[in-house]
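Subject: Protein record for review, amino acid sequence with backbone structure tokens
How to read it: Take the token row as a discrete description of the fold.
Enclosed: The protein record, placed directly beneath this head.
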Amino acid sequence: MVNPDHPLAELLARDVRYKFEAYLFVFEALKYAHEELGMGATDEDTSEVGAEDDEEHNRHLSGQQLCEAIRQYAHQEYGYLAQEVLRHWGVTRTGDFGEIVFNLIDIKEMRKTPEDRREDFEDVYDFDDAFQRGFQFSSADASEGPRSK
């Protein structure tokens, strides 16, 4: 699971609201946001001196953007069960993503800008709307009837 010497192990012992998998999922969703959704895309001129800091700033996502990336990634990974998986990990609202992110900031596993606040994650979307009513099945039209082999 997690190395007992890693700061995340101490965090998990101190704050038991969220499971280890929730923290991993937020990291994975952030990567998905950058690589698959193109959020926080960098300019091509990042090869200049000091560009590493500029690139990190340009790759920054707002709380709302990260919540949207999480929603899309959860749909991709877990489909209709996304809400149940998140609930199992202790996540029941977008504000929980903010708590996770700021916990990771506290242990220096993520960074923030001076403008970032926990409140940026509050009420970004309703979980029922985002993960149940907003889910679209991609199966064949029901009017086709059952398929035979």
The longest helix spans residues 20-35. The radius of gyration is 18 Å.
